[in-house]
Every structure is written in C-alpha cells, then in structure tokens.
Design brief:
Helix content is 39%, strand content 15%. With 436 residues, the protein is an alpha+beta fold. It is globular, with a radius of gyration of 22 Å.
C-alpha cells in the first residue's frame, strides 16, 4: 500500500504555506481520463534544453496526442511552482521532476500514480533508480529520465608521474591522498566541497544510507545513520590532517587547481566531462575514469549525483496519454537518442547507456573509447536512495554546517548531528509526524 504522509505546510525553497491536510500519497488513481472526440493536447514543464525538439519527434508520429513543452527553471523554484499550480488546479499534464523532489510533490498530491500505465517498463531501469519513483510503495509516481552515477576521475599523466595507483577501495583512496602529499606537498588528490550537498548525499547512498524512510506512517530521518557517519568521518579525517583540500567546487580557484594539476582527481558523476571541458580546458585527453572506490569490494555499489524523472500530475485529464508519452520519452530508442543529442543527458534507461548516441566517448575523453561502456557497468550498481519532503532544508543545513567544519578542519560528526537536527526540526515545524 502507498505510504501515508501528513503535512501542514510544504517543504519548498520558499516554504509556501498551503494549509493543514491529511492525505494518502497515491496521487489521484482516478484522474478523470476523458474520451475525446478530437486530438489530446498535453503540456509538459521541463528544464532540460531542447526538449521541444524531442517532443516534436513524438508529435510527428502521434498527431492525436500533441505535447507542448514549456521551459521552466529547475530545482526548488520548479517544485514551488508545481505545488502552487496544483493547489489552483492549473498544473501541466507532465513535469520533469528530480528524484529528490518526488516525495515533496507526492505529499502535496501533485503527482498521479501511474503504476497501471507504466508498470511494464520497470526492467528498463536499474533497480536503484526505479525504486526512487515508487517511494517504497506499490505506486509509481514517475518514469526515470536521466541519472548521474558517481565515478572516480583522475589525471593519468600525474598519477604516473607520482607513482600512484588508482584506488579501488576507500582505504586505498586515503592512502593515495597521503602518499601524494608526501611526494608533492603543494598538490592534493582532491577536495572536500560543502557547496553542493548532492555529492555528499551520493557518497552516503553508496554507503547504504537511507536518509528518509517511513515507520508506522511517520517520517523517520536517518541522516546521521551509520553509513553517513562513516562517510562524514572518512572525509572529515582527511580534511583535518590536510591529506586533501577543503575548498569548495566550481570557484575560479577550483578551476585553476584542476587546470594546472594542483588537484589530481575528482569524485564526480557521469556528466563530469562537460564540467572539465570548461573548468580545465588545458587538460583535455589527460583524464581517465574508474569506478568509485568501494567500502566492500565484494558488493560493488555507487551513488547518484543528479538525475530526474518524467511525472504525470494529478491535474491531468489525460493521464493515460500523458503516461504513454512519458514512457516513450524515456524508453523509445529514437527518443533516447534525441535526449542525448539535444538535451545532453545521460539516460536512465539501461539500453541507451551504450551504443547509438553514446557510442562515441565525450570529446574531453576522446582517447578513452570505453568511457560509456564502463559508465554503463557502473550505473547498474546504483544503490537505492531514500528521499523525503524537505530535502532542500537538509541540503541547506549541509552547506552551512559542513562549510564551517571544512573551513575550520573540525569535527564533521558535529556537523552531521546538526544537519540531522535541523531536518527533523523542520519536519516537525511543518506538522509532519516524525518517528524517533
């Protein structure tokens, strides 16, 4: 049975108060599908670039179901807009929703259960991704669209210069970082960054973390669970002893460190080549990619950093048609090829992760012909993730608390405890029932 979520106000970036409510998180199983005598018109809110070009392929082949794409902002801004529109019964038929936004949207009755319409496509995706669209229930609230499996990116020339071996475990990763500091004190293997919680969440995911779960129809927050504590202590220890850098990503200083070889590696996601192209243009052809270091080599696993879905709203009067488009968009070979070419995404569908549009490696990794073959194998090991209705609060707390801890090279455990407390307090403030 679908889980029951209780809320008083919505967990969004702007904390829009939407009134007390008790609802079953199953969307609208009866969406009022209408038997139209003429063509059906669907509206799709999406932020990925050129989605209108992808929809044009569908429209040409399906004249009776026309899809109009309306470009939107991403992140919390879109979540707020969807919820506001849903409360006014003016939401579009379809939305591009990040995986971590699904619980918030479902708890506000903004997304429909489309399990009856898309159940046959489950095996097209890695189990860890599909699980995120069900929220641990029998319902299905979206179809996975793109994913961001975590990997290890490193400078091959500098690894060779300093006699370093690509780490396969996190213990080896720590040893590699320390060995580099001994050989080249002015360089760092990588940095711990506090300005994007997505990477930390993915690393915790790999370690088995389940930050939000439900217990007796209450939310249970486990941000300070053993898996996440292990990750926090590991990275905190490296920062404290100066084995790695403690500077945030995406800054001019970080770009320079990558471009000049002051930083030799980056734990990132499959989309990293695009970032490196602009952050470190002088290093093209000098990088390689490997699986993320493991906690247990006998059970290969990776986390995710990013990823989105295609969901049908409860306002849609054409749920069947909308679900048909969502399925086509994320499973049809022609649609997937267009998503790669036009929108630049890494598709969630397993069949599209090698060959076709991804037969050629990214230009920045042109000398690595097996880039996407290796990426597909890594993606299959994506661990399940558990999201809740106030991800934005947890992420903000991470940035604040871990930012201070990283700068001061102090205890990351205290930062994690503060992040846990802030997330629980916010849920309770909003009127959610929280299990202790």
């Amino acid at each position: 049975m679908p889980i029951v979520l209780r809320h008083r106000v919505v967990a969004t970036a702007t904390a829009v108060a939407l009134g007390a409510a008790v609802l079953t998180a199953c969307g609208s199983s009866d969406s009022g599908e209408q038997a139209d005598s003429g063509p059906v018109s669907l509206t799709y809110w999406a932020w990925a670039p050129n989605m209108d070009k992808v929809a044009a392929i569908w429209n040409k082949k399906n004249p009776d179901i026309k899809v109009t794409v309306q470009k939107q902002a991403s992140g919390d801004d879109l979540v707020t807009k969807i919820i506001t529109a849903s409360k006014a019964h003016q939401a579009p038929d379809l939305v591009q929703a990040e995986f971590q936004a699904l619980p918030t949207l479902v708890s506000n009755d903004a997304l429909a259960d489309i399990s009856q319409e898309v159940g046959g496509v489950k095996d097209a995706f890695a189990p860890g991704l599909w699980q995120q669209t069900t929220l641990g229930s029998d319902a299905v609230y979206a179809v996975p669209q793109d994913s961001g499996p975590l990997m290890f990116f490193y400078r091959t020339d500098l690894f060779q210069q300093y006699g370093l071996t690509v780490p396969t475990t996190w213990d080896e990763f720590a040893a590699t970082a320390k060995a580099l500091k001994t050989k080249a004190p002015d360089k760092a293997l990588t940095t711990f960054s506090s300005n994007d919680a997505g990477l930390f969440a993915g690393l915790a995911q790999q370690a088995g973390a389940q930050w939000w779960t439900t217990q007796d129809q209450k939310w249970k927050v486990g941000i300070d669970d053993p898996g996440t504590k292990k990750v926090a202590d590991f990275w905190g220890g490296l920062v404290k002893e100066g084995a790695i850098d403690n500077q945030p990503m995406y800054t001019p200083a970080w770009n320079k460190a990558l471009n000049t070889g002051q930083q030799l590696a980056w734990v990132s996601a499959v989309w990293a080549p695009g970032v490196l192209t602009t952050a470190a243009p002088d290093t093209k052809g000098k990088w390689a990619m490997a699986p993320l270091p493991q906690w247990d080599e006998s059970k290969p696993s990776t986390g995710s950093w990013g990823g989105s879905t295609t969901a049908v709203t409860t306002d849609s009067k054409h749920k069947v048609a909308a679900a048909k488009f969502a399925t086509w968009l994320n499973t049809d070979p022609e649609a997937l090829a267009a998503l790669v070419k036009e929108a630049g995404i890494y598709p969630a569908a397993i069949a599209a992760q090698t060959g076709g549009a991804l037969a050629k490696s990214p230009d920045f990794f042109a000398n690595r012909a097996d880039f996407y073959t290796k990426a597909a194998e890594i993606a299959k090991t994506t661990a399940p993730a558990a999201w809740g209705p106030n991800v934005n609060v947890a992420y903000t707390s991470f940035k604040d608390e871990f930012g201070k801890a990283a700068k001061a090279k102090s205890d990351f455990g205290a930062a994690l405890t503060a992040m846990q407390g802030a997330t629980v307090a916010d849920l309770e403030k909003q009127g959610f029932e929280v299990a202790q």
